[in-house]
Fold this sequence. Notes:
The chain is an alpha/beta fold and about 270 residues long. It has two domains: about 200 residues, 2-enoyl-CoA Hydratase, Chain A, domain 1 (Alpha-Beta Complex), CATH 3.90.226.10; about 45 residues. It has eleven helices and nine strands. Helix 1 packs parallel to helix 3.
Amino acid sequence: MSEIPQCEFLLLELDGGRLNLNFNRPESRNAINNQMGEELAAVVNWLEGNDDVRVVVVRGVGGHFCAGGDIKERRNMADEDTSGGKDPIMERNRTAGLAFLKFENLPQTTISMVEGSAFGGGMGYACLTDITILTKGARMGMPETTLGVAPAQIAPYVVKRLGLTRARQLALTAERFDGTTAYEYGVGQYLCEDVDADKILDEVVGKILNCGPRANAATKAIMLRVGTVAVEDVIGFSAQTFSELNRSDEGLEGQTAFAEKRKPAWQV
Length: 268
């Protein structure tokens, strides 16, 4: 396994097959500045070919998930000269979109643990991960339109998670809502009291680690193809994937363990 990326604005903690990826700008409620965005992209690239990490937990340091983009930095970038054909704001936004796309397609199972503020990009990550745990005290929304801009790169993931009708309502009114309402809207699959966040998170991670790592990655790959490629292609890919898994060491171990009434080797 290659060395874990060195980051200033992300706090990375490896715990066996679990990577805790923590937004780490607590003085700004973990708003994403340009450097943090670059660090996120580097971590995603590192995770793409990493078989040792099975679960990625996205969380914020200091009681807040992520307050979105760094507005002050972005405002300063608006004054930069674009006459040379380079647009730093467009390039940054496009880079963020590509990082979101890579993150969505990671082989690892990804979890958002949403506490405190989760606006803009934070809302995006909450809708992007495979599993989202919401605390009742979380505060969420897409405030971009109140700033005269658009939730450009997060919008597709909010639509995927909530549906077009609800996503349009939230984006075009910039409504702010708490964790309970977010759960009712469908942002997350788990809702808990703020004090129970660690307990629920560990329970969910434990359930994931009970599953075969290759099986989870393959299942995610099948599901992400639904609606993006022809149905016949999904059927063919699914059949090939099932056959490969069934013949793999993991598939043989899992089915043998079931027959022998014992835990498979990947469960600790």
